[in-house]
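Hello,

Our lab assistant flagged a job as stuck in the queue for most of the afternoon. It eventually completed. Since we weren't sure the result was trustworthy after the delay, we are filing this so someone can double-check. Below is the sequence as submitted and the structure that was eventually returned. Let us know if re-running is recommended.
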Amino acid sequence: MAKHVPTSRLARGTKLGAVAAGSMIRSRRTRLSMRGRSEAVRAKMAEESMIRTTEQVVMVLGTMKGVAMKLGQMMSVLDLDLVPEEHRERFQQRLAVLRNAAPTVSFAAMRAVIEEDLGRPLGEIFAEFGTEPVAAASIGQVYLGVLHDGRRVAVKVQYPGIDAAVRADLKNLAMFRKVLQSAMPWVTPAVLDELRLNMEGELDYRAEARTQQQIAALYADHPFIVVPHAVPELSTTRVLVSEYIDGRGFDEVRGLPEAERNRIGEIIYRFYMGSLFTFGEFCGDPHPGNVLLAADGRVGFLDFGLYNRMDADHVRFEITCLRAAAEERAEDLRELMIQRGVIDSPEEIGAEECLEYVLSASEWCLIDEELTITPELASGAFLLAVDPRAGEFTGMKQQNLPPEHLFSRRADFLTFGMLGQLGCTANWHRVAREWLYDEPPVTELGKAHHAWLAERPAGRPTTPPPPAARRRAKRS
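-- returned structure --
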């Protein structure tokens, strides 16, 4: 019998509550039983207790879907240093479930959503429709279909009741933040605020279809990037229909030869971060499940529920800060952040701390040399920047990062994490100099991209900023 997504706050909160109780009891028993043990045994017991707690949290996140699953997906992308290295493979296998979760809602229930939203029987809408989902999203499932005009399409359908589930998650994640921090200390109020401000927007597939159409038009005829067109007339609040891209998934791409992985890594970097600095807009949800390698060598990008458009002044501010950091102009960087209000307690932050903090997170694309990105490098940068357990940069972590920059930095970290999963190598700074210093490209992909830019019409489609981008996140 198919399982249903729990939607009540109580039902969903109970899952996290059980983890909380188990974690506290286990920690207490572990501490009591440590009396008289050797240091080595105590360390081993503490390690095993932490592993059990972490794995329980991962399993809960996978069953809750919604916001909780989104946090789990972030963990899987960044390969966070939550467990000792010898247990990492087992932990990553559990995290992979969050990325490629098997469907838990029956097709009959999902079919009812499609027919209710579109107001017609499935057979009238599609000439063919597969009953087995081909992918799982944080709030729904994806099916393959064929329209009566012969077009193959991907059909993303929300889980019944997921809107209530997401709102329950938002409340429960705030309530159980301390519990989650036992396994994910980086779950700060700012992280929760960012998820809260964006997740409700993901519930509106009609808005996502409009955004996807604009991005598909923006990247039309691109030499190595493809975004499938949506089918707006068949997209509703809970159903999104778009062109189907047949391609290899991220796990298969990870097994390709180094040269191919390096090429794909540069494309991913250019799409997720280059778009921000070139067009002033970017996808806020870089994730392995949203990338496909098409048969013609282009890389397809999917899922635009979390898409942001940044004001040109904010983009210039980020570029100016990154240039100051790359050039090690610590005083200039600190003054920029004070003027912007990022640093609202100047007496607590020195110029060197400010510079070192920015470099700890972004040095990978600010140093002029080839660099192989590993999972450890990516997760280490993220944890150093946000994790309270890392004693460095305490003052910077307490400053007030406006949400428009919080969104872009999140995208940067997750892109970094994806590149780490690929283990790809490049001189990332030389790529970034195209948008940081307006320099000509030095890579073959860069030259092809700039040739495409030169041939594009002067006008370009734009995506309006989401309502969340006009608010401010709480201090972490």
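-- support follow-up --
The delay was a queue issue, not a problem with the job. The result is valid. The chain has 20 helices and 13 strands. Confidence is low (pLDDT under 50) at residues 1-38, 459-476.
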